Structure formats: C-alpha cells, structure tokens
UniProtKB/TrEMBL annotation:
PROSITE patterns: PROTEIN_KINASE_ATP (PS00107), PROTEIN_KINASE_DOM (PS50011). It is a single-pass membrane protein. This is non-specific serine/threonine protein kinase. The gene is LOC116192578. It catalyses: L-seryl-[protein] + ATP = O-phospho-L-seryl-[protein] + ADP + H(+); L-threonyl-[protein] + ATP = O-phospho-L-threonyl-[protein] + ADP + H(+). The lineage of its organism: Eukaryota, Viridiplantae, Streptophyta, Embryophyta, Tracheophyta. GO terms for cellular component: plasma membrane. Residues 35-63 are annotated as: Disordered.
Length: 402
C-alpha cells in the first residue's frame, strides 16, 4: 500500500501546491467569543464572553447593538505587535495571526492592506449575524492604519487537511516534487498543535466530521437569501478540542468581491474543489458548493488531496480518477482498514460521487446530503457496535459498486 501512496503523489502534486497555501489559513481561525443569532453564540460583553470560553449553556445568546469593532491597540497587544512568532498562516484575506485578547480569549486575526470602506463594514456586519454551531465564528473587525482585519474564534485542532495529509510529509523525504512552502506550512502547523502524529481519524469519526460540515453548508444555503460558500475545501473544515467540525471562511469570497483591490485573491484559482460548470460559466450556485463538498468526501475516503484538472490531464475527470483507484484497489485510505463496514464505506463513496456528478442539476441538495450522512452514521454505528470494531469485512475497491 505504501508503494501505491507514493504513486499517487505525482498525480496530486498540483493539488498539494494549492492545499499547501490554505492548510494554515483555516487551521488557526478560531477563538471563543460570540454575538447574537442562532445557536451557540454569545456577545462582546466580557461576562458573556467568559461564559462562552467556559463552554457556556448550549444555545445561549446575548443581544448587542452593532458589530464589535476591535481597536488596533488591542489587536497589537494580542499579537505582540503582529510579531512573526505569532504568524500562523496565509489565506485569501491575507496574513493570519494567533492572538490572545486581554480577557484571555484566543483568536485568529486575518489582516490585509486596505482602507476603510462602507462596503467592508456593511458586509462584516452581515456576516457577524450568521451564527451556527457548525460555522467558525466571526467575532469582529478592525480598520486602522491602512489595514482591514477580521477576528475569528480559534480552534486548537486546526483543519482536517492537516490530519488527513500528515502522512504525505513522508513523500517529501522520498524526493516527490512538492513545493517547499507546503513543507514549511505543514511543519509549522504540526509545531503549532503539538500533535505528532495527529489524532487517528477512524471511519465513524470521518462520517461525523462530514456531517458537521454538511450541516454548516446546509445552514448557509437555508438563509434567505442563501449564502454560497464558493471556497469550500478540506482546509476550510476545522475541528475543536472535541473534534467537532466547523466550516470556516463562510462569506469571505463575497466579502472580498465587495471591497477594493479584491483582485485575484478573492477568486479562488481552479482547484480540485471547483465545480467544472462554474469554472466555465463563472456562475456559482448551491450545486457548486455541493460539488466541492463531494470532493471533500473523497478526500476523507482516500486520505490524500484530490488532483486538480491540470494534474488529471485533458482527457480525464475526477470521476475517472476515482474509478482508476477503485480498479487498482487503492481507493480507501489504508489508515481506515478495520474501522468500517463494506456497506458503510460503499454508501459514503456513492454519496461523494453523486455530489460531483455532471450536470450539476443531478446533484442532491445539502439537506438531502445531511439526511444521508445521518443514515450512514447511524447504520455504521449500529453495525460496528454489533460486530465489534475492526471485524468489518473489507471489500476490494474494484468490487465496491458491483
């Protein structure tokens, strides 16, 4: 199996270059500090914030007037004057710093050059009102000294990318062509978390992570009007200390479109997660997010980054990539062996393929995806409880769809 993993590396090198720049972005975007609306929120009031940091009563809310505007002095103090030692990543919104607020709240601060604009404040005010237990919480903003800054809650276990791709670091040591920045960022992430190796992600845990992420996207799509993520990917799924997953960067693509000098940074370049139809038409829809979610499911199954269009070549698509791995019995992450049932893994893969089917009109909506993942998880829990962990029959990849 190790030989097959090395073989995959060449096919996914292109995807890794893109995943690299994003692994640290979502990794560190978390703190503990809320506002008003929906489940599991709090407020900018210190007492409410303290309760949030203690875990707080589920579903607690507090009403405040307007978004919280942090002062530059407060954020400089939190990051030691934005010292490089607190720089934890880069993303579409610029540099990301880990900070410690005066009240003890750990936050992730995203900073980019930009002048004060009404569009920025209006959009941030809208995003601050979106609250859900499966979404990374935006706490507030700051616009001073020629910078636009966003303050997010910080999650200690970082992105799922780090936990899935951890084993890929070994490929670098074997001479695979990886960009140096991927090595640098990945090692920085591992140092930051102190996890070596990351927590094992058995199949049932991956189902739960997928369900949390699907619930987050479903919440965005259920808003009126719906909010499209447009940049959903594995590195945008973060996990807290209990490995509860949350979707990060919801609304950032929309925000970047509305502020000056958004430029190419606001438009995600073509990656494995981009819906081919949206790439051609330039029109994004809920089905575009569904496609991205399907690629996320495939990465949860394979444990490796999905290849982008350039890596696949002119006459192949992601569906064919999956089929080729099935035929070579190299589809399922070897770290999953002994933790799943054949029926469970088959249903999970089928759902992933349904999410990336073309044309997009044939894809399920997020509410149906949530229901299906709940069904798969419940059935998998029941079967493995009855059979015992590790006793599942492993079906070869080539037989999964017969």
């Amino acid at each position: 199996m190790s030989g097959s993993v090395v073989a995959i590396a060449g096919g996914v090198a292109g995807a890794l270059l893109i995943a690299a720049a994003l692994i640290s972005l979502m990794w560190f975007c978390r703190s503990k500090h809320p506002r008003n609306r929906n489940s599991e929120t709090g407020s900018s009031d210190p007492s409410a914030l303290a309760e949030w940091n203690r875990g707080g009563p589920s579903g607690s809310t507090a009403r405040i007037s307007g978004p919280r505007q942090f002062s530059l002095e407060e954020l400089e103090q939190a990051t030691k004057q934005f010292d490089d030692s607190n720089l934890i990543g880069y993303g579409s919104f610029g540099s990301v710093y880990k900070g410690l607020l005066r009240d003890g709240t750990v936050v992730a601060i995203k900073r980019r050059p930009g002048t004060p604009r009404l569009e920025f404040i209006a959009e941030v005010s809208y995003l601050l009102e979106i609250r859900h237990r499966t979404l990374v919480t935006l706490l507030g903003y700051c616009i001073e000294s020629g910078f636009q800054m966003l303050v997010f809650e910080y999650l200690p276990n970082g992105s799922i990318s780090n936990h899935l791709y951890y084993g890929m670091l070994s490929l670098i040591l074997y001479g695979t062509k990886f960009h140096f920045s991927y090595l640098h960022i990945s090692l920085a992430v591992l140092t930051e978390t102190g996890q070596d190796p990351p927590i094992k992600l058995e199949f049932k845990r991956r189902i739960s992570i997928a369900l949390d992420a699907a619930t987050g996207l479903y919440h965005l799509h259920s808003l009126k009007p719906p909010l499209l993520h447009r940049s959903f990917k594995t590195s945008n799924v973060l996990v807290d200390e209990n490995f509860i997953a949350k979707v990060s960067d919801a609304g950032l693509s929309r925000l970047l479109e509305r502020i000056e000098e958004a430029g190419p940074s606001s438009q995600t370049s073509a990656t494995a997660f981009q819906d081919p139809e949206a790439g051609v038409s330039g029109i994004f829809s809920e089905m575009s997010d569904v496609y991205s979610f399907g690629v996320f499911l495939l990465e949860l199954v394979t444990g490796v980054p999905a290849p982008d269009a350039e890596s696949l070549g002119p006459h192949r698509n992601l569906m064919q990539w999956v089929e080729s791995r099935q035929k070579s019995n190299n589809l399922v992450d070897r770290r999953l062996l002994g933790t799943f049932t054949s029926e469970g893994i088959r249903d999970f893969i089928r759902l992933a393929l349904l999410c990336i089917v073309l044309p997009g009109i044939k894809r399920p909506k997020m509410d149906m995806i949530v229901l299906e993942l709940e069904r798969i998880r419940e059935k998998e829990m029941a079967l493995t409880t009855f059979m015992g962990e590790g006793t599942a029959i492993i079906t070869p990849g080539s037989e999964l769809f017969t």
